[in-house]
From TrEMBL, chains A, B:
The keyword Oxidoreductase applies. Keywords: Oxidoreductase. Residues 16-186 form the Alcohol dehydrogenase iron-type/glycerol dehydrogenase GldA domain. Gene3D superfamilies: 3.40.50.1970, Dehydroquinate synthase-like - alpha domain. GO terms for molecular function: alcohol dehydrogenase (NADP+) activity; butanol dehydrogenase (NAD+) activity; metal ion binding; methylglyoxal reductase (NADPH) (acetol producing) activity. One of its GO terms (cellular component) is cytosol. Residues 197-386 form the Fe-containing alcohol dehydrogenase-like C-terminal domain. It comes from Carpediemonas membranifera. It comes from the Eukaryota. This is Iron-containing alcohol dehydrogenase. Signal peptide: none annotated. InterPro entries: ADH_Fe/GldA, ADH_Fe_C, BDH-like.
Length: 389, 389
């Protein structure tokens, strides 16, 4: 799905995003936009958090200092972003002749901005952008100020968007749709609520593990790196639970989350699995209130169990258990996963997310309507979901 | 020196190189050059190996198929490349109106090509490019076909060049001087002599450790990743000694070596130390026959010992010993380092490199003439070199 990156025998790596990382990095965003010749931006953002954590004001100050005009604002982009909000953005961007997008927020805001970027130059409805052939070739450049680390959207070319009416959540990777510049100031995250912090950490861990699932064991460098990312996320997750305002821990999680899905972690891993995401996308398409990270964390052990026993991934997951948790066998790794989630107050069952067993066939059908990885049938997917109850 | 990449509180990450990795990746190079509008290239290369391993012929075939003309060839670039050869290249490129450079070779060839790239548009002598203010702004685009993995020059913006007469070896990082596209086909490396293989592995390990030396211990993500790189290099190094033609092992080393110095491994590590390289540069300036990797491998434990005891890096290196070799204390890590080098038939003392203790003051002076890291005096540097005898 994201950052496929082939195998040891054939891969392409390309990621031109300029990252400005650290305290006050946002103060550079105006200059980065202006120096590329853009004078009119549309700002995209979520709710009140960008106003509260200072990211909005810092961005505005930097734009002003560099004579970049804010010609429109698309506010209130929600988690699990929806296509109607992006349609609104496309209209705003066109009406106001925006020359670039400044996304201030997390993955939902940046994902919506990527759809808007292409939609602004697409003749049809923005929902159909992923099916355009050839791909939409013109786009609004995207600049981002990241306020929560989780999806790595700040440094990749993918987005996920849903249509509530269709109960459909679709991922799309456009070859050129990378942000031009992303500012990551971990200070903005020191005040995040704990559940959002955990969801971000878990999201990054699952990205890494989705990619890890593509291994056959010969990819020593990729596996060592991914195990390192996972250990760092576990260690920093525990650290942040005790000390949520610790800047360095936030910064380490931020860097790990970016690396977990910017092409590096997946290099040579055959595109990974993405079964966890496919099922989670169905869950949040049914109930947009399900946090992405929460759904992923619940489903992960079920997917490990299924892939280990049904498609020969046992040795790969045994290695994961050993090298990330120091335990023997993938089942012990799954227990370690669940134990950490419980320690972090994260849900661990489908029931806790509000789903009932009767919904399994419907969820499985939604997954397979979009497309099943590993050649799985709806029965396979149903069996995985069953394991997560 | 290379890829400074600040700290957790302030870093920039930017690497726009497109990597095409895997078997037959070279067959794409003509299209990559032609599609960017370049029709006239100068080829840069070393000695006979590019002719023997097939990389030269594959490149020529791909250029022909895409109507790209080879207007000149700069051959016989040696290891520890020298400025006179680059001067020759500048003349050739100008006389023949080359529009781009195709480097076929390892770090020396690519480094020379980077100097040539800037030198072609510099009014003065190419040796003075690093001291131009402002930096040279026009450059010949660089495309590379990598034939030996070690320096990561295929994916960074630095080069090292020496002047034999001056006994001076200087490193330079230009903000934009990245290759545009690099092809890495590990097949070309399956026939490499063992000493070149080891030198490449050791070079990549030392790059990682130079950066690691910049840590204060708070950079959990960077440290975990670098430990992963080091473990992979150790494991694959041992694997290749038994099975030098193993494609997957070559591919894992290739990817690790690229990551070891493309900005990724050094992110947040304050630019690292680079003391090992500074001293090694003096060694090969004195005797160009000293292989870069050989000098680095010999000096590494001495530098660890000195930094651990004199500038407070003991805990960082204790962590390294534990996480890379599973041993307690940095001294045990140094022993593991030396043991691996001996197993690999790599020199471990200055004497084996052909140096005598009488030369220590001269070497130390050369190092400090270029600039000493950590505020070290020539006496400090001499003490480090003494430890390596």
């Amino acid at each position: 799905m994201f950052a496929p990156n082939g195998s040891l025998t054939g891969s392409i790596f390309y990621n031109p995003v300029k990252l400005i990382f650290g305290k006050d990095s946002t103060s550079k965003i105006g200059e980065e936009i202006a120096s590329r010749g853009f004078k009119r931006v549309i700002i995209t953002m979520g709710g009140a958090s960008a106003l509260k954590n200072g990211s909005y004001q810092q961005s505005i100050d930097s734009l002003k200092a560099n004579n970049v005009e804010v010609v429109a604002e698309l506010r209130d982009i929600r988690a699990n972003p929806e296509v109607n909000k992006v349609r609104e953005g496309v209209k705003l961007a066109r009406e106001n002749q925006a020359e670039a997008i400044l996304a201030i927020g997390g993955g939902s805001v940046i994902d919506s901005s990527k759809a808007l970027s292409l939609g602004a130059f697409f003749d049809g409805d923005v929902w159909d952008v992923p099916r355009a052939t050839p791909p939409v070739s013109k786009r609004l450049p995207i600049f981002t100020v990241l306020t929560i680390s989780a999806t790595a959207s700040e440094m990749n070319n993918g987005y996920v968007l849903q249509d509530d009416e269709k109960q459909l959540k679709v991922a799309y990777m456009h070859p050129d749709n990378f942000p031009t510049v992303s500012c990551i100031d971990p200070s903005f995250q020191t005040g995040l609520p704990w559940f959002q912090t955990v969801n971000g950490v878990v999201d990054a861990m699952v990205h890494t593990l989705e990619l890890y699932a593509g291994a056959d064991g010969s990819e020593e460098t990729a596996l060592q790196l991914d195990e390192g990312l996972l250990r760092s996320l576990v260690n920093c997750g525990h650290g942040l639970q005790k000390d949520p305002e610790n800047y360095n821990l936030r910064a380490n999680v931020a860097w790990a989350a970016t690396l977990a899905l910017n092409g590096y972690s997946g290099f040579s891993l055959r595109g990974g699995s993405w079964l966890v995401h496919m099922i989670e996308h169905a869950l949040s398409a049914i109930d947009p209130a399900v946090a992405h990270g929460a759904g992923l964390g619940v489903l992960m052990p079920a997917v490990i169990e299924y892939l280990a026993t049904k498609i020969g991934k046992k040795e790969v997951y045994d290695r994961w258990a050993k090298n990330v948790y120091g335990v023997d066998g993938y089942k012990a790794g799954m227990e370690a996963w669940v134990k950490d989630l419980k320690t972090w107050g994260h849900p661990t069952t489908m029931g806790e997310l509000g789903f009932k067993k009767e919904q399994i066939p419907h969820i499985a059908k939604l997954v397979c309507d979009v497309g099943c990885p590993h050649g799985f049938t709806p029965e396979d997917v149903a069996a995985v979901i069953e394991l997560a109850f």
